[in-house]
Design goal:
The protein is of the alpha+beta class and about 100 residues long. It is built from 2 helices and 6 strands. Helices cover about 15% and strands about 35% of the residues.
């Protein structure tokens, strides 16, 4: 038996695996009310970042933004937390799928 008889000569069918779209990063204050997001980074003074982490806004935490306005209310780690919009500007997030 020759090697040429073992080679599959059927046409090659290429399949394309869809590449997931890059998630748009934004500040928590820019996220839509009612959305679920994941914390990507904190960009503030170290003491402020430490306090945000103590409140549950650590990197990779999942957050639900419940309301918007002068301040905003989020649910993080099972607790509702109110933040100023200025403080929410320092929290970089990406949307989570529904």
């Amino acid at each position: 038996m020759s090697n040429s008889s073992l080679i599959d000569r059927s046409p090659v069918r290429h399949t394309t695996t869809p590449v997931p779209a890059a998630r748009e990063r934004m500040s928590l204050s820019d996220a839509a009310s009612g959305s679920r997001v994941r914390v990507v980074a904190l960009r503030s003074e170290p003491s402020v970042c430490q306090r945000l982490r103590e409140l549950g806004f650590c990197e990779l935490a999942e957050v639900s933004k419940l309301s918007d306005g002068i301040g905003l209310i989020c649910q993080v780690c099972g607790s509702k937390v109110a933040l100023s919009s200025r403080l929410a500007d320092d929290i970089v997030v990406e949307p989570l799928p529904f």
